[in-house]
Amino acid sequence: MTKKIHLSFWQIINMNVGFFGIQYSFGLQQSAVNPIYDFLGAHPDQIPLLNLAGPLTGLLVQPIIGALSDKTWSPRLGGRRKPFFLIGALICSLALFAFPFSSSLWMAAGLLWILDAGNNTAMEPYRAFIADKLDESQQPTGFQAQSFFTGFGQTLANISLFIFPLIFIGTTGKLPTWVFASFFLGAICSIASVWWSSYTTKEIPPTAEELQKIQSERINLFTPFIDIAKAVKEMPKVMWQLALVYLFQWYALFCYWQNSSKSIALSVWNTTPEKDMELYGEAVSWTGLVNGWYNVVTFLSAFSLVYFAKKYSPKYVHSSCLLLAAIGFLVFPHIHNKYLLFPAITGFGIGWASMMGIPYLMIVANIPKERYGVYMGIINMMIVIPMFIQTITFGFIMKYFLNNDARLAITFSGVLLVISAVLTLFISTKKQVISE
Description:
Blueprint: H1 9-31, H2 33-39, H3 47-50, H4 53-70, H5 82-98, H6 105-133, H7 139-167, E1 171-172, E2 175-176, H8 177-200, H9 208-216, H10 223-233, H11 237-267, H12 277-301, H13 304-312, H14 314-331, H15 341-355, H16 358-363, H17 372-400, H18 406-424
Helix pairs in contact: 1-6, 1-7, 1-8, 4-6, 4-10, 4-17, 5-6, 5-8, 6-17, 7-8, 7-12, 7-15, 11-12, 11-17, 11-18, 12-15, 13-14, 14-15, 14-18
C-alpha cells in the first residue's frame, strides 16, 4: 500500500464525521425502538426476541462486508471502504424514514432488520478505513475520534427523545408524533454526514502489485465465507481473549438498553407501560435525557483516554472504564430522584467512550494490514454473538429469575460488567506507539 501521510487533527475529524450519522441511527435503535415496541403492545419478556435483528444482521453482514471490502478497489465509487459505508448509510436513511409509519409490532421489527443491516454495512468498513488511512501513531486518535462521534451522535438522538415530545404533541397513527421527527432527522444525518466524510477524505490507492492481486482474485458467493473461516483459524490470541471480555460486556449492554426506560419508570415514576402509558411516556423522555448525558460524557472523555492509554496501556484503561460503568449500573435502579440518575450513569459514559475505541488499540498491531476489513468484521462477530445469546436467553432469565423487573435487569448488567473488567486484565497485548 502507498505510504501513509501524517494527517492533521482536523483531517482526522473530517474523515470520521460520517460516524456521527451512523451513531445517531444506533442511538435511536438503543433508546427509541424498545419504547416503540412498548407503545405497540409488546410484553417485557418479548423485548429480547424483538431485538434479534441487531445481533443476527451484525453476525452475517459485518464480517462479509469486511471481507469483501478487503478485495475491493473502485475509483469510480470512491475506493475500497467508501462504497460500502455509502450504501449502508443510504439503507439506514430509508429505513429510518419508514420506521415511524409502523402500524404493528412485527412491521416495526421487520424495519429494524433493514435498519440494522444498513448500519452494519457501514460500520466495520469505517473501522477498517481508519486502520487503512492512519499510521500506527495516529490510529489511537482515529479510533477515539470515532468514539467522540459515537457520543455526539447518540447524544443528539437521545436528546431528541426529550425535546421533540415537547414540540410535536399528540399521536400520528399508532405512535407519538415526536417519533416521526426524531427518525426523520436521523435519516438526514445518516446520509449527509457519511457523504461529507467521503467528499473530504480520499482513500489511499493500492500499489500496482496490490491492485494486480485484487484484480486476479476471483470473487464468488463463497469467497467471503472462506476468508472469514481462514481468518478465524489464524486469529491471534489477543482476539480470543478480547472475545471472552466481549461475551460479558455486550450481553450486559443489551440488557441495559432494553430495560433502561422501564427501570426508570419503576424506580422514579412507580409505573409500567401496562399501568399508565402516558406516565410511561414521561419516563421514556427522561430516559432519552439520561442516555443523552452518558453520551455527552462519552464525547467529552474520548480523546483524554488516548493519553491514559499511552501512559498506562489500553487494557488497564479499558478495565478501569468497565468498572466505572459497572458501578453506575449497580447504583442506577436504586435511585428514586430523577436528577440523581445523571451522576449514576456518568461512569457508563466513560466506559462507553472506551468500548468504542480502546479495544481496537489492543488488537490492531496484531492483525495483517491487508486483512483489516475481515478482522474488523470478526471483532463485530464477537460483539453480536453475545447479543444473540442475550436475545434468546434473557427473556427466560427475565421471566423466571428477575420477575420481569427491569430494575433487576440493570443490576444483572452491572455484575456482568464487573466480570468483563476483571477478564480484561488478562489480555496480553503488544506495546503500541501512540502519538502525543
